[in-house]
């Protein structure tokens, strides 16, 4: 888990040659220390935070994947700022299958969505400008914004049995320096999807929308017509829809992501022209994965099906396991995570430390994801089923005993 941000000490001469943008609190947090102690004692620690699919026993189409990354074409270097046309065409085909027709000329490849954010912050914001980001959500935005010398300004997601964008908080967060709004759809970790009304009202703000849609393929329940992509936003001036192999094919090690650009033609053309210069300065996407892109996307079905089956099974087991206890599982629509609401008898930090120290179960406290108040835990639903079930049993027993 990423460590906290900090500010440079003005009186420390050792730091005088280093940029304040890259100064982070590198000290281990209490949970890291407690986990290290638990593992040092021996025995098995059940890690219910594991979100790396390559360590979770997910079934892949191994033959297709291994054949694809060994193509002879990978021996030839063809620098292209937006990525090879063949790879961008494969991404365009992928998007069209989900109902979103995007010309390959409007697709930009990056080495992961973090780089996509970096490019877009460079494109849209000057130093000191502001970008609206959801809370709760994955804390990466704070780090990326600091590295680009821009300011993340939160807007709220509210829970009343389901999650909603607090649109008044979005409007209240806008200032003369606001340059873009980030949405995560489905959100990580709440698993909430934007409604059509929320998406259209965000578009009505006339700000560029940066929409992180990496978890879009992973529905945790059937039914419910929600927008799959911000590309569907009515009247949006400029939209950047982000995806990548990390989630779409459960292949984070392949380091290939994309942004699809949509909106008013003149704005899109200008944005792409400037993005081309930014991307040309890095040329970071590896040639082998670009040549393999079409096959990797075509082979995604095995991993996606395995993950959907597992996440749904683990979620159902979790709901049953904590039944009758003072813990509840919040409503979740999609993604790889579930959220537990805890009794208010002690802080979530205390609960989390007790779980790992007494029962050797590792979970995330809600404050890692900037929940607005105390009392939440976050667990990964792609953990191997046997391990997940044992972890859920230990949590259930812990609450009944305490």
Question: Secondary-structure map with pairings?
Answer:
Blueprint: H1 30-40, E1 46-47, H2 62-68, H3 85-97, E2 107-110, H4 113-124, E3 130-135, H5 140-147, E4 151-159, E5 163-165, H6 167-173, E6 178-184, H7 196-203, E7 209-212, E8 238-244, H8 245-248, E9 257-263, H9 265-280, H10 287-298, H11 300-321, E10 328-329, E11 337-341, H12 348-358, E12 361-362, E13 364-365, E14 376-380, H13 385-401
Parallel strand pairs: 1-12, 3-4, 3-6, 6-7, 7-8
Antiparallel strand pairs: 2-9, 4-5, 8-9, 10-11, 11-14, 13-14
Report on this structure:
The protein has 402 residues and is α/β, with parallel strands linked by helices. It has two domains: 27-59 and 301-401, Aspartate Aminotransferase, domain 1 (Alpha-Beta Complex), CATH 3.90.1150.10; 69-298, 3-Layer(aba) Sandwich (Aspartate Aminotransferase, domain 2), CATH 3.40.640. It contains 13 helices and 14 strands. Helix 7 links the parallel strand 6 (178-184) and strand 7.
Task: Provide key terms for this protein.
402 residues; alpha/beta; Aspartate Aminotransferase, domain 1; Aspartate Aminotransferase, domain 2; 2 domains; 4-stranded antiparallel beta sheet; globular
Radius of gyration from the alpha-carbon trace, in angstroms: 22 Å
Q: Return the structural class.
A: alpha/beta
Remind me, CATH topology of the largest domain?
A: Aspartate Aminotransferase, domain 2
According to DSSP, the number of beta strands is: 14
CATH architecture of the largest domain: 3-Layer(aba) Sandwich
Q: What number of domains?
A: 2
* Main CATH class of the largest domain: Alpha Beta
Q: Which superfamily, in CATH terms, is the homologous superfamily of the largest domain?
A: Type I PLP-dependent aspartate aminotransferase-like (Major domain)
Shape call: globular
Largest sheet, spatial ordering of strands: 2-9-8-7-6-3-4-5
- The residue ranges in which pLDDT falls below 50 over 5 or more consecutive positions are 1-10
Strand residue percentage: 15-25%
Q: What is the helix/strand order?
A: HEHHEHEHEEHEHEEHEHHHEEHEEEH
Mean pLDDT equals: 92
State the end-to-end CA separation: 28 Å
């Amino acid at each position: 888990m990423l460590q906290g941000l900090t500010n440079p000490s003005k009186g420390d001469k050792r730091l005088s040659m280093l940029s304040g943008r890259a100064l982070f609190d590198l000290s281990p947090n209490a949970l890291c220390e407690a986990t290290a102690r638990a593992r040092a004692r021996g025995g098995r620690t059940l890690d219910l935070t594991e979100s790396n699919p390559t360590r979770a026993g997910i079934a892949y189409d191994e033959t297709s994947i291994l054949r694809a990354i060994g193509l002879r074409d990978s021996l030839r270097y063809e620098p292209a700022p937006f990525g090879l046309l063949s790879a961008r065409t494969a991404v365009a085909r992928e998007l069209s299958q989900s109902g979103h027709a995007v010309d390959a000329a409007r697709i930009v490849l990056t080495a992961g969505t973090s780089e996509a954010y970096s490019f877009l912050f460079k494109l849209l914001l000057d130093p000191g400008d502001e970008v609206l980001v959801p809370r709760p959500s994955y804390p990466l935005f704070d780090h990326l914004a600091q590295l680009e010398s821009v300011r993340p300004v939160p807007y709220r997601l509210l829970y009343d049995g389901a999650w909603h964008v607090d649109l008044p908080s979005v409007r209240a967060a806008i200032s003369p320096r606001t340059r873009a709004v980030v949405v995560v759809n489905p959100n990580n970790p709440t698993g909430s999807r934007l409604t059509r009304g929320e998406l259209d009202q965000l578009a009505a703000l006339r700000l560029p929308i940066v929409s992180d849609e990496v978890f879009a393929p992973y529905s945790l329940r059937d039914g419910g017509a929600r927008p799959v992509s911000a590309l569907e936003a009515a009247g949006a001036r400029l939209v950047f829809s982000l995806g990548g192999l990390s989630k779409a094919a459960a292949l984070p090690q392949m380091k290939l992501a994309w942004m699809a650009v949509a909106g008013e033609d003149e704005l899109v053309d200008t944005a792409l022209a400037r993005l081309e210069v930014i991307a040309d300065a890095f040329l970071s996407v590896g040639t082998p994965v670009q040549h393999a892109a079409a096959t990797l996307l075509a082979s995604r079905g095995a991993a996606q099906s395995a993950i959907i089956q597992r996440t749904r099974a683990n979620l159902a087991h979790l709901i049953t396991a904590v039944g009758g206890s003072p813990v509840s599982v919040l409503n979740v629509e999609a993604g790889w995570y579930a959220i537990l609401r805890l009794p208010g008898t002690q802080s979530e930090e205390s609960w989390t430390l007790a779980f790992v120290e007494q029962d050797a179960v590792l979970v995330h406290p809600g404050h890692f994801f900037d929940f607005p108040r105390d009392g939440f835990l976050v667990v990964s639903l792609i953990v191997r089923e046997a391990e997940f079930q044992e972890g859920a049993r230990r949590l259930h027993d812990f609450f009944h005993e305490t």
